[in-house]
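Researcher: Quick one. two chains, 490 residues in total.
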Amino acid sequence: MTAGPSFLGYARADGRAGVRNHVLVVPTVICAAVVAERIAAAIAPVGAALPHLAGCGQLGPDMNMTHDTLAAYTRHPNVGAVIVVALGCEQVVAQQLADSARQAGKPAQIVSIQGEGGTVRATAHGIEIARAMAADAGRAERVRFPASSLVLSVKCGGSDYTSGLASNPVVGRVADRLVDLGGAVVLGEIAEIMGAEHLLAERATDPAAATQLLRVVSRVEAEAMALGLDIRGTQPAPGNIRGGLTTIEEKSLGATHKAGERTRLVDVVAYAAPIGKPGLTVMDTPGLDVESVTGMVGGGAQVVIFTTGLGTPTGNPIAPVIKVTGNARTATTMADNTDIDVSGVLADAESFESAAERVFGDLIEVSSGRPTAAERLGHREFAIHRRNPTF
Amino acid sequence: MNAAIVISAADNVATALEPLDSGQTVRINEITLTIAEAIPRGHKVALRAIRAGERVIKYGSPIGLASSDIAPGAHVHVHNVASTRGRGDLSSAAMSREE
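Model:
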């Protein structure tokens, strides 16, 4: 029996804990996406497809990012078994993805559309495999894990003034508590660290992590500068500005609160790269919500806590996304997308500590299997970050 | 509930938690402020005079530079605050001036 907060998860061969037990259906290339989605739909909600726009026509780092992200999902602790759907002539190699899953101890099979002889045969064969995998998945039992087994992704989207004042500070207290317990927290969205990087760098456990953070933020700023435009065209977004956010610095200072007030920065990792250390990791992701969540889950985050002021539906194919808002009106108008309303902290109706306690409680319950609003609504957004043009 | 909130003692702006009307007097921490113009909920109001070029401070850190003089009680937003980050527009303007 473990002391302290714990959850019921799935024990994986690599030692990690899954909070879901999905059968993952991975298309190697956009051309296989529809077949993959149909196979996954036949075993919903256990089936999870990863429809994406790439897998061919890519070169160098862009190609690697697509392959590495898909491979990371095949190894993910929230995945119990993997079906790779290939077309047959693409760049992403189905065998490598299947091998990646098997190395992580997961059963994996390949269905090739050209090999099977078309959409109908490939879909039928895939569904046959998927039903057997889903039956096995249904027999798996959850076992108790300490909260320290969690890698928590923190994200904000559709931000307004309440994000920096209410929901992000509440979630920051959850991040502090999880890291105190020995868990890991990952923060992405480099553009939304711009203006607050000094605060995170001061909390680095070693100078290398601080230097790497400043280097990554400088690179993203230089990329924006190279366009010869004001980043205010997109950061803050038009809705952020209507909501009262004036500059990217203001948005960033509010946004970084969700990564905790005393968490120590231990690592800076590439997009979808493994999050291996307890403490706070920063991942090099864009600010665009779905690309960012896709990358952080790829890095191993089993759960996402997503704060929003204006409300947003974003989910993920394999990880539960918990929506927290500090805007009382959004909690009402976007009720079906909202898991937790913490607007009481701005009305002096609830303390930050009490709100954080509720969010932490929900984190544990969701990790033990309770569906989130995004899961109930079937939100499974997935988008791999692209670095180069398609050839 | 307070009409507006100041996060750090170093801040020279407050955030309105409800819509503020022109001429309204609000007490924010130790400061009594007469609102100079309508401030939408969630938008910022100047706690004191901020001169053009001076840093606008929220969360105890700079969020940009005042692009014009800002009077106490005035609305502080994109019309009078400029970001100092990711300003490719300024570097390209500077380049075209040099040409």
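The interface with chain A takes residues 1-2, 5, 7, 15-17, 40-44, 56, 58-59, 61-64, 76-78, 81-92 of chain B (CB under 8 Å).
Researcher: Thanks, that's what I needed.
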